[in-house]
Amino acid sequence: MASDEISGDGVTVATLSAGEVDTSTGLTTAQVARRVADGQTNDVPGRASRSVKEIVRANVFTRINAILGVLLIIVLSTGSVIDGMFGLLIIANSGIGMIQEIRAKQTLDKLAIVSAAKPQVRRDGVSVSVAPNEVVLDDIIELGAGDQIVVDGSVVEGEVLEVDESLLTGEADPVHKQPGQQVLSGSFVVSGSGAYQATKVGRDAYAAKLAAEASKFTLVHSELRSGVDKILTFITYLMIPAGLMIIYNQLFVSEQDLPAALNGMVAALVPMVPEGLVLMTSLAFAVGVVRLGRRQCLVQELPAIEGLARVDVVCADKTGTLTENGMRLSELRSLDGDEASARDALAAMAGGDPRPNASMLAIAESCDGDPGWTSTAVAPFTSAKKWSGNSYGDNGNWVLGAPDVLLDAETDVAREAEEIGSKGLRVLMLGSSDLPVDDSAAPGRVTPRALVVLEQRVRPDARETLEYFADQHVSVKVISGDNAVSVGAVAGSLGLPGGDSPIDARELPADREALADTLDRATTFGRVRPDQKREMVGALQSRGHTVAMTGDGVNDVLALKDADIGVSMGSGSPATRAVAQIVLLDNKFATLPYVVGEGRRVIGNIERVSNLFLTKTVYSVLLALLVGLSGVLSQFFHFEPMPYPFLPRHVTIAAWFTIGVPAFILSLAPNNERARSGFVPRVMRFAVPSGLVIGVATFVAYTLVYAGPEATETQRVQAGTTALITLIMIAVWVLAIVARPYTWWKVLLIAGSVAGYLVLFALPFTREFFKLDPSNVGGTTTALVCGAVGIVLVEVSWWISGAIHGEKRRLFAQPDVGGVTGPTTPESVA
């Protein structure tokens, strides 16, 4: 029953209760406003959104900041402000992390708005496109093939409406929906058309909670992130015994006064914390998102950047990927001499299609004369049956689809169609049937009436993209629902290996092992059903492949969902964009190499900087253990104990040019190395030996020049300087190893690091400020000798590790090149 409400201008308007909405015209503007005021809107969290407050909290309140904060308070309590310089790391870690993540958030949010599905809603008798969060309770939402159902509702109109609920239930078979039946948010339309009334919106909708959790901006669930977390956990456990030993040595064995003991303790503990590792990881991911955003690439889940870097097989559709989306009717070849009837049938079919696909749009452009036929039955196109049809009463039953599906492949018409398709053209057959198209036995006996020849243009950048993947040893499999001969013609023209030997998917084996064998041999497949695409992805994964699936149609959804990385075109159906991790908003397959290159840059560079940070952690822990252990042993063997050699300011400057600045630049530099699994073991194989060498060499140099407890202040400073020179020499060499293969800017980076330390040791002001004294010739000579020995040992351990584990040495690898990741220039790392 109608109820009255007062509009803003004082006019009484009639509104309908929820059950009385006029489904043909939808809600009125006043009804929508009333529901918005009552909070009956689809207020679900936006995809890829994390609030600024959450970003700030996540970057400030970290375990590393907590450790450094406590140590900073201890140092400041001694009155030595200079030795608290490492506290700037807290500001740097938090500030840089927040800035970059907020930039990434803004990029993602803007792109997500562009990519978001915009449902068609009936309001005031007009169909309008609105954002999902603008849908209100009782809205009448129109549906077509490929549309995602954004809220829960009840079907009010349905014309052979089939809905896929596999994303919710796991059941792949589409469900036929009739008026009165329920549809759930998160499902999508496979075929047909209709409309439904929103009954549950916002957080009440079935998939809202799931979507809210899955849509957050996150850096988790990746081998890289989990590897870094494992490393940090291991380091935390190491710090406990090392810290206790150094505290015991400083306070009780060396019998230093409290300020000196605390400074020594902090100097030992600070370098154990890999303060920049988490920052650099987050920074690399965030910068990757921003870079890809500039190329109109929406990364809906950040680990997808890492996943694409590991991809070794790309499954691509032909239409919209290798060829452009638009088509043109090249020829209408009559088979019975009655071209006029064929054109009338095509015009009626195209004019009556509420959601025409690319083929039907091309037909509509050329056959635009409406014959005035009235449709009595409809059979919408599906990728499974590969034909559509309409019945028009006395004007007959007409079907349009693949010639080799509607006809026996041995007929003259089927052979003629295949010959045309071998030239790379798309061929459909228009036929008349003896059965209504909605009959259970349809299409029945089909009489060929005309061949519809459609021309597709190959993307100008398709060949270059395929060549890139070939150079990177990434296999490309073209998987299409089109005729195999036509698919093979396009693939072959682009030089894809095996493209000229296409396989008809109707002949593929059902057994997964046999299917995997076929996929290993062949590259081009036609007449592939949606369920077969999914099976092919699974077969490739069963052989250990990391698979990326690209697609734009509703027939690609299941395969996109199961692939390691799903890539959707921006012009694709809302369903494909919803399940894909990456959306190419510019609809260019050629953007994919940049995404792969960005993923490789992120992973390769994080591994590089991890080597630096963990080497520092290893040598810091070892040095603390050696100094602490010497203090404990001195109690039993009656020799003089040694205090920790460094002040907090020493460990700060030691990291400046061996880790801090170089790690920042290397984390953003070009890197084309292919991603490999086993991140943690590989990093530890380098960091542990290098850290052990630095720790032992530094301790030996310090021991040789330490003058004992009776040493003067000058002698203590000289001993610490000796140890610091040894440490810096070997640490710079570790940087030189990690930076391989060399390019001009990397050589400049290493030379700049060396020059930075020479300045620190050469200028009287910096020597005084940082308490450095290299004037002791014997001590400095000892440092140079120990440093040289350490350099040789690090180099030898690096080569031995590579030989044992069969790793290719970067020294003789090809230098990083520009290619798709950009030129190796200083500008490219900014």
Oligomer category: single chain
**Principal-axes shape call:** elongated
Largest sheet: 8 strands, mixed
Rg over CA atoms, rounded to whole Å, is: 34 Å
> What is the percent of helical residues?
40-55%
Tally of separate helices: 27
Distance between the termini: 65 Å
Strand content: 15-25%
Mean pLDDT: 81
Widest β-sheet, arrangement of strands: 10-23-22-21-11-18-20-19
Derived from helix and strand composition plus strand pairing, the structural class reads alpha+beta
Uncertain runs are 1-19, 210-221, 808-830
SS elements, strand count:
23
Transmembrane segments: 66-91, 231-253, 265-290, 618-639, 651-671, 683-705, 717-738, 745-765, 777-800
Pfam family, one: E1-E2_ATPase
Protein name: HAD-IC family P-type ATPase
Main location: membrane
Commentary on this structure:
By secondary structure, the protein is α+β, with helices and mostly antiparallel strands. Helix content is 49%, strand content 15%. The chain is built from 27 helices and 23 strands. Strands 10-23-22-21-11-18-20-19 form an 8-stranded mixed beta sheet, sandwiched between helices. Helix 3 runs antiparallel to helix 4 (88-115). The protein is elongated. The chain starts with a strand and ends in a 25-residue tail after the last helix.
Outline the secondary-structure elements.
Elements: E1 3-6, E2 12-15, H1 29-37, H2 52-60, H3 63-77, H4 88-115, E3 120-123, E4 126-129, E5 140-143, E6 152-164, H5 166-169, E7 175-177, E8 182-183, E9 188-200, H6 208-214, H7 223-253, H8 258-269, H9 275-294, E10 297-299, H10 303-310, E11 313-316, E12 323-334, H11 339-351, H12 358-366, E13 377-379, E14 387-391, E15 397-401, H13 403-406, H14 412-421, E16 426-433, E17 446-458, H15 462-471, E18 475-479, H16 484-493, E19 503-504, H17 512-521, E20 524-526, H18 530-542, E21 547-551, H19 557-562, E22 565-569, H20 574-579, E23 582-584, H21 592-637, H22 648-668, H23 679-705, H24 713-738, H25 744-762, H26 764-770, H27 777-805
Parallel strand pairs: 11-18, 11-21, 18-20, 19-20, 21-22, 22-23
Antiparallel strand pairs: 1-2, 3-4, 3-5, 5-9, 6-7, 6-8, 6-9, 10-23, 12-17, 13-14, 14-15, 15-16, 16-17
